[in-house]
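User: Elongation factor Ts, mitochondrial, Populus euphratica:
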Amino acid sequence: MALCRNAKGPLSRMLTTRSGVSYGQRYSTAATAIPIYQSADDKTAFRYAFGVLSRRFSSQTPPAAAVQMTLIKQLRERTSAPIKDVKASLVQCNWDIEAAQTDLRKRGKVLAMKKAGRIATEGLLALAQNEGKAAVIELNCETDFVARNEIFQYLALTLAKQALLVENASQLVSGVHPVGLESLEELKLNLEHPKISGDTTVQNAITEVAAMMGENVRLRRGFVMSAPSPGVLSSYLHTSPQPGLGRIVGLLSLEIEDGNSPLDTVQRVGSELAVHLVAAKPLFLTKEGVSSDALESEREILKSQAESTGKSQMTIEKMVEGRLRKYYEEVVLMEQKFVMNDTMNVKTLLSNLSKEVGSPVKIDNFFRMEVGEGIQREEASSADEPVAEAA
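Assistant: Predicted structure for Elongation factor Ts, mitochondrial:
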């Protein structure tokens, strides 16, 4: 008790001392107050009080390494953010996991905006389909690692379903129609994933996932195909991590003259043709559909190759026409050899199908898309823009 009474005076005066102010005879007027002990009791009392203060401030020191690792793991599981960002936010917030989670979201959105100009050539195609319509969107990221992430995949599937619900006057007509990305990005959607949930817009959801992944995430394009009536839609996704996702999609619509024909048989052949689209990469449906520019370009290439042989002009013309027939077999769907039975072409396959179902069947439209195709050309064409230079 005596010790505590002796400590009150010196200690209270020490704690209230400010720089450059002198209280009585016991403290100097230096920039930092330094206690001047008058007796051994004063010195002992100071040491006791300093020990109490040290124990009080020690509660704000970082937790043990094992506890830190547990908090990092928990926050990483909550947010899927990169480990270095998780740790930085926990340190910034004195290892308060709730505050760190809020800080991560704020920090991540800023970084996502900065990374928006970086080239994203990886990603996934997502397909949503009902009886009369199918929607395909391409969601890009920078690495295949992010494309395998469950949150990224959930977002891609959600966006495809949202694109399928968008009503557009042009989509009422059978064919392939682009999705208006600006309109899609402004739409509201309800996310129901444990790590990203709640009502938000499509654009905000993309930014949120980009913040979590630490990469540029970009909704690049989307298309909708409407089925003819009567008719069916058939699709195939290649390199598919789960239903509705893949890196290459083949999609086509088959029109049937008689609506009472067995659709299951038509659907089966349609599914095989969708696989054919992915493997054979056709550019045109029929020979008549080949664009004049494409045909003229190919003719010039073939003519140049034939002239290098030094043969007569008549022979060169025959060589060019023969090679053009080969060109049609490579790029025209109806002329291609069917990949599942190369003894016949697609035209013959459809003829056989029509006989089997008792009604003419024809391909109304087809569509093939691959992740990242054309992105390098896009970037090259805009290389003079600041964002492309920064990428």
